[in-house]
Amino acid sequence: MRRPLIVGNWKMNGSRSRNAELLGALLSRWQGVHQAEVGVCSPSVYLQQLADCLTGSNIWVGAQDVSPHDSGAYTGEVSAAMLAEMDCHYVIVGHSERREYHGETDALVAQKFAAAQKADIVPILCVGETLAQRDAGDALVVIGEQLKVVIEACGRDAFSQAVIAYEPVWAIGTGRTATPKQAQEVHAFIRDQLGEQGLGVRILYGGSVKGANAADLFAETDIDGALVGGASLKAEEFIEICRAAE
């Protein structure tokens, strides 16, 4: 049975004082043993603060990006080995904002996926379509190609130590959410693309997830949790989503 997973993606938000307040609130509300697993992905400059606050708790530390390179003259990049030293358990790769604003290709995302696994960090591979692609009926074609490049580079077996997050680009930060039926259709497609390996892979939904819609999404067969953006910056809202995954 796949264990539910909720991961907060703070994006480019936070300050040391605000982080301490938020983490303290999360830790006070999410104690003991739970059915759902929880992680938080912060900007890289705050990873040490996360490690100091969360190590030994039941909330995992995660990063938002990783370099495909081990080391070298790559100014501004952060390697997987560096993230591992910060106790990172998860790292997001291929987020739609990285693909759109930084021109990340499917091939580069596959390299980052492999780099994370080389350092024993679990990659959270993001896939998803734009509104134009969905309206054109190409959503599954786009997502299938995004998956195919990683499968060809790393193999299906690599997904035994990975998580996939389906993010309809048109639903990220817009307040719009894919209906549970729409999300389930894509999640089932993703699982099918991975063959037998897909049975154990956790597939998260990401795109304006809130406490109000989380339970309906999680009730679908192939939705194993959520990659949460804006709502992860509000302790009560984030914990409500975590509890819905229970």
TrEMBL record:
It catalyses: D-glyceraldehyde 3-phosphate = dihydroxyacetone phosphate. Substrate binds at N9, W10, K11, G173, S208, G229, G230. The active site is at H95 (electrophile), E167 (proton acceptor). The keyword Transmembrane helix does not apply. It is an enzyme of class 5 (isomerase). Keywords: Cytoplasm, Gluconeogenesis, Glycolysis, Isomerase. One of its GO terms (cellular component) is cytosol. GO terms for molecular function: triose-phosphate isomerase activity. The keyword Phosphoprotein does not apply. Gene3D superfamilies: Aldolase class I. Belongs to the triosephosphate isomerase family. PANTHER family: TRIOSEPHOSPHATE ISOMERASE. NCBIfam families: tim. This is Triosephosphate isomerase. It comes from Exilibacterium tricleocarpae.
